[in-house]
Amino acid sequence: MLSRVADCLYWMSRYFERADNASRVLKATYGLILNPAKFSTEERWFHAVSSLAPGVASNKVDPQHALFLLVADMEGSFSVVKCIKAARENARQVREEISSEMWEHLNRLFHDVTGIDLEPNDDAEAMRVVTLVREGSYRFNGIAAATMNHDEAWHFIQLGKYIERACNLCVMLDAYFDIGKHPDDLDWVGLLSSCAAFEAYCKACTAELRSERIANFLLLKAEFPYSVRYSVDRMYEALTGISDLSLSRRTDNVERLMGRLRSKVTYARIDEIIGGLHQYLAAIIDQCSELHAAVHELYIEYPIEVAFQN
Amino acid sequence: MLAWVGGVTMITETDTTDRSGAEALYRYELNGAYDEMFSAVDHPRKQYRPRRTSLSSIKALRSPFMGTTRARSESFLTICSPGSSRPPNGKRLSAASPAQPAPESGAGRVAAQQTAQRITALNLFLKDVYHEGKIIEDGVVPGSIVYTCKHYRREMRNVKVPRDVYITVVGTDLIRNPEGNFVVLEDNLRVPSGVSYMLTSRRVMKQIFPSLFQKCGVRPIEQYSQALLSTLRSFAPEGRPEPTVVLLTPGSYNSAYFEHTYLARQMGIELVEGRDLVVHDNIVYMRTTFGLQRVDVIYRRIDDDYLDPLVFGTGSTLGAVGLFNAYRAGNVGLANALGTGVADDKAIYAFVPKIIRYYLDQDPILENVETLLMSDRGQRDHVCQKLEEYVVKAVGESGGYGMLIGPHSSEQQRSEFRQKIYAEPRNYIAQPTINLSTAPCLVDGIIEPRHVDLRPYILYGEEITIVPGGLTRVALRKGSLVVNSSQGGGSKDTWVLQN
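Predict the joint structure of the above. Result:
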């Protein structure tokens, strides 16, 4: 497969996952702020903004504008609409590589989302975008799984999706487990819904909301699709799939980084890491970035001298 | 036996009352041009008669057409040129109606060797002007015209191209004059487009009117992609028995990108952009996730100027650095070769009959349109006095740009062109205005004549292959003579019937 094509598929998938993540968080946050609780509305938006838009001066968030900012802001690279645009733009470059059902669905979603005229104070319309993306995302993932060959292109799509998901989960956990704040039950529900995890958590751990259990579930639960552990396992599968196809390439560095990250989430115990959770999450994010860079250098933008040595 | 036949109908998306097909055709008005279907009002040409009866009701026609329009909007079949605004999808799309043509005889017949004659001669001309230049020495074509051509590539001098074939993919534009004879309007020897319209129109027609295909014995064109692939493979460097062929596109922002993806998919080859290519030691590679993979033949859909920034110095990133040297070293095949634009220059066009006689010692079978060179003082003065009678064209342009249609022009446009001609005489030619033939088109529920031309696609590899079909281009505006898709033209399926 052409390196450029692999790169576009990877980024299409990452941006789509980013939009999906934002839509989950926004839906949960919007539901939360309707209830009075220990955390103020500002603090709740602060959680959302710092989970979704790192780099934005989130301590000065105007709650009136937060929703609009996260849904429609065109400046940064984080808003829902921006991410859908970027995903569609990447898909457009490689329309022949994805199934036409995927393209049609993504294209339609793009037109639906950009067709809504958003005004800064119109929460209802902004939430309509969120809902469209929420539903569109499940459908897109289903269509992709059902209509594409699960070959190299598929593996790059999976890799992009889960590397993005692992990072997003870590950022989100970090925002909620920030030292010095003690969320109440409602906010824990907010975190779990942000990860589409509330029902699954209740099934596995009952409805008793305890911070350590929640951290354990979202970080280390191998069976839950929106956990860090699950995401890392899928990344590993995707990378193995890709390297199996390209036997001649030197994959040592990618394998090393992948193995390191995998052991970090596979053999960890929550009581060991909960004390230094912030460092632990930061390390996972760093390792994901390293892995991204290594994959990029191995498959996408390799120096040609290296290519001739192989 | 071949017969080239223009297809018939296009559609726009306006609602209409139901009229019977017969009535619609009865109202069909001829406007003085040669009409493909009728010799006079209500007198269909012989070969169309059996088909006319199939047209029972416009209503029956419309329902499948609406489906067609939708189907094609979704496949994004538009080709626009830079600078033109993209019209709403539905308006551009067109399809043939069941009032389909049958075989013709006499003037309408363009046998394979007739177009082949022209292609062969033009190819010999290209080889000559990039090597010895005998035709110039012998005074048949003036050197002042050849060497001043904007598409003449000095870099190609004495470059040996594989099997001396410069023009691999050709789309010659044919029109029918009021006497009913086919004449050549333009030779497109650089990167002719539109073949995906031909293939898609046929697919759509077959979906809508399968029974007509069974009845009429329409010759297939679906083998075009295979023919193109094997033609391209024949340009592989020696010692590469399983060559890698790629299609080089300027990218997804190009107006013909749909066609590029379509052809690449049909041929099962990689669709690459300049940034995917790397040239190392005069060998071209593409970057894949498996490492660098050698490329043997490039079907390039980008212009000469952008192929290699090192040689053509345009600073463009559409091509690949070092590509030209790899080509000159014989390590990669290019289709078409570089510098073919000199042979479809509109001033050189005037000399094509002479070129055919010079190289082949034969009389040209396909006629030319009379062409006046503005670099000739006498002709220039004559034309500038009577601009309203002529069509003036810039020699190096395509897509219907840089052109003045005298009878449809304003005094201001004419005086602008007059100045342009005097400023740069070499850059312009003039032709008498030719009333292109018309064909019935379904417009807003009424069948009306629209002007058409025909572009058959010719492939030149180990042999010359002509796919028995072509793109019939339609000027969608009533009375308009501009059929270019970049200027709002539509297209029709075109049938060649078995005799």
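The interface with chain A takes residues 74, 251-252, 261, 264-265, 270-273, 275-276, 278, 280, 285-292 of chain B (CB under 8 Å).
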